[in-house]
Amino acid sequence: MLTVKNVTKKYDKVWANNNISLTVPDGEIAVLLGPNGAGKSTLIKCICGLLRFSGEISICGFDNKSLEAKRLLGYVPEMPAVYDLLTVEEHLEFIRRSYKIADDGTGEKLLRRFELYDKKDKLGKELSKGMQQKLSICCALVHKPEVIIFDEPMVGLDPYAIKQLKEIFTQIKNDGVTVLISTHMIDSVEDYWDTAYIMVKGEVKVQKKNGEGNESLEELFFSATETGSDK
Ligand code: ATP
């Protein structure tokens, strides 16, 4: 479970997050939508412990800055950040060592699933943008986290990888994992979401459960943001 309570983050004069609260229970997929600059990535960076903020965030009941929380969290950042001089396989080994977990074959399965297994000896700097994104997803999943945050996970992925990722969303949800996805590609999550949070100017303007009302996610987005921008 992911709990965000009264989170506020200000950059100089910009209130990037203004008193945000949300809860994502086990086995649910929440989507975070909003125009450019609405504050989605800031909230995600606060959740992942990469920014200082005021308020409280907990991962499965543990404060997000604690070691316990970090063990339980997986994060796919907006921009893949791979190590230039580690091979694909070494990235997964690095994650396993950091989390002190044995190789149970999950890494190989993920690499095969994302068509990276034959690239396992390639260096990070030799990967295309899409391959880096796929590796970033594998790295976020290899330690089997209980809460996973995806920031624009589909960007740069080919159709086959998008299909694999969508199947993974369903699988991890069925395994009881908590998922938060921030995306502009509304179509890509239309079939999976349980709760939608639409952010505008640093605040959650609309929160809606799937099945409440007849509006599609896209219609909800446009009605919440009115003009489709955060002007
Ligand atoms: P996008 O959809 O374009 O990725 P977003 O919803 O993720 O946008 P954020 O990146 O969280 O939005 O930005 C929220 C606000 O905070 C914006 O006004 C942005 O200009 C500002 N902001 C973000 N990062 C910084 C920073 N490092 N320093 C100053 N202001 C920042």
* CATH topological fold name: Rossmann fold
CATH homology group: P-loop containing nucleotide triphosphate hydrolases
Shape: globular
Bound molecules: adenosine-5'-triphosphate
Helicity, in percent?
25-40%
Radius of gyration: 17 Å
State the total count of DSSP E strands.
10
CATH class: Alpha Beta
* CATH-derived architecture: 3-Layer(aba) Sandwich
Please outline the major beta sheet.
6 strands, mixed
Look at the structure and give the mean pLDDT: 94
**Any low-confidence stretches, pLDDT <50, length ≥5?**
none
What strand order characterises the main sheet? Answer: 6-7-8-3-9-10
Q: How many structural domains?
A: 1
Question: How many helical elements?
Answer: 8
Structural class: alpha/beta
What portion of residues belong to β-strands?
A: 25-35%
Order of helices and strands: EEEHEEHEHHHEHEHEEH
Layout of helices and strands:
Blueprint: E1 2-11, E2 14-24, E3 29-33, H1 40-47, E4 54-59, E5 62-63, H2 67-72, E6 73-76, H3 88-98, H4 106-113, H5 129-141, E7 147-151, H6 159-174, E8 178-182, H7 186-189, E9 195-200, E10 203-209, H8 217-225
Parallel strand pairs: 3-8, 3-9, 6-7, 7-8
Antiparallel strand pairs: 1-2, 1-4, 4-5, 9-10
This protein binds adenosine-5'-triphosphate.
Adenosine-5'-triphosphate (ATP) binds next to strand 2 and helix 1.
Quick summary:
With about 230 residues, the protein is α/β, with parallel strands linked by helices.
Overall description:
By secondary structure, the chain is of the alpha/beta class. The protein has one domain: P-loop containing nucleotide triphosphate hydrolases (Rossmann fold), CATH 3.40.50. 32% of the residues lie in helices and 26% in strands. It has helices at 40-47, 67-72, 88-98, 106-113, 129-141, 159-174, 186-189, 217-225, and strands at residues 2-11, 14-24, 29-33, 54-59, 62-63, 73-76, 147-151, 178-182, 195-200, 203-209. It is globular. The two termini are 33 Å apart. The model has no long low-confidence stretch (mean pLDDT 94). The chain binds adenosine-5'-triphosphate (ATP).
